[in-house]
Design goal:
- The protein is mainly α.
- The chain has a single domain, classed as Orthogonal Bundle (ABC transporter involved in vitamin B12 uptake, BtuC), CATH 1.10.3470.
- The chain contains eleven helices and two strands; from the N terminus they run ααααββααααααα.
- Strands 1-2 form a two-stranded antiparallel ribbon.
- β1 and β2 form a beta hairpin.
- α1 packs antiparallel against α10.
- The radius of gyration is 19 Å and the shape is globular.
- It is a multi-pass membrane protein.
- Keywords: Amino-acid transport, Cell membrane, Membrane, Plasmid, Transmembrane, Transmembrane helix, Transport.
- It is found in: Cell membrane.
- One of its GO terms (biological process) is amino acid transport.
Length: 294
């Protein structure tokens, strides 16, 4: 279909829905960028921890009757604690090794987490209700926008901005960046660099869990729900530039919109357009759009 033949309301509505997907891409790729940029670890377990955040939200509602808003706080905290254990017990032993070791280790963690939850709950999916205060739709002129999807965009952008500000504009962020560049010098000022690194990994996976709770009412919860997203999210991080906070957020939002547009213009290409863009970007600029050339 020609782009100019598409009715404007249909085009705008599809672009807005693409922005919702882009919000998920942005917050997930942000967590990956934080972990790689500050710890130099390719965290393939990110998708599993995204899924774990959603499953914990469902378990909180099902077994403890804890509502969505409570689990939006507790689930990322719980996954952050799990991430801290993973970093202290496993990851810190491979920081000086080749990236392949981190990739294989986190892939193994992914298979264990997914296997345990698949054995416990199967793969058919677990429904999670939309919070009552965010149910319904709002007329925005060209479409009826689901209130919950609007909340996803607002919450994701808020968290992304807060994370960028923390890392790029605060003294703590400066310590984190300096600690990854020259840990010995930073430790000479009395700063506990290993603790900062541990907390950074915990924070990165907490972002994934936060995205998982946001996704729970939109995507049916399943032990395999992270598999479909994580490959796209890795492509987003590569396009934006490995370790670039701004690149992760901007690229995630932009690719969500482009993917939404592709579903209208040429639906058959919507599942591959992100990877086609990745190939082109890597050919022209191997470090990514926002990455630093070495």
């Amino acid at each position: 279909m020609n782009l100019f033949e598409i009715p404007l309301p249909a085009l705008l509505s599809q672009l807005l829905l693409g922005l919702v997907n882009g919000a998920f891409y942005a917050i997930l790729s942000l967590g990956l960028a934080v972990i790689f940029g500050l710890l130099n670890v390719i965290n393939f377990a990110h998708g599993a921890l995204f899924m774990l955040g959603a499953v914990l939200a469902w378990m909180g509602l099902e077994y403890l009757e804890l509502n969505y808003w409570t689990m939006l706080l507790l689930s990322p905290l719980a996954v952050a604690l799990i991430g801290i254990l993973i970093e202290k017990m496993m990851l810190r032993w491979i920081y000086k090794l080749d990236h392949l070791y981190g990739l294989l280790l986190t892939l193994g963690i992914t298979l264990v987490v997914e296997g345990l939850l698949r054995s416990a709950y199967g793969v058919s999916g677990l429904p999670y209700p939309t919070p009552e205060v965010l149910s319904g739709t709002t007329d925005v002129g060209f479409m009826m926008l689901p209130n919950y999807r609007a909340w996803v965009v607002v919450a994701s952008l808020g968290i992304c901005f807060a994370t960028w500000y923390l890392i790029e504009k605060t003294r703590l962020g400066a310590y984190l960046r300096a600690g990854t560049e020259n840990a010995t010098m930073v430790e000479s000022f009395g700063i506990n660099v290993p603790l900062m690194i541990t907390l950074t990994y915990g924070f990165g996976v907490a972002l994934a869990a936060f995205a998982g709770v946001l996704a729970a009412p939109v995507i049916q919860i399943s032990p395999l729900m992270g598999q479909n997203l994580i490959i796209v999210v890795f492509a987003v991080v590569v396009i934006g530039g490995m370790g670039s906070i701004l690149g992760a957020v901007a690229t995630g939002l932009a690719l969500g919109v482009i993917e939404g547009l592709a579903k209208v213009v040429y639906p058959e290409a919507s599942s591959t357009v992100v990877f086609a863009i990745m190939v082109i970007v890597l050919l022209v600029r191997p470090a990514g759009l926002f990455g630093k050339e070495k």
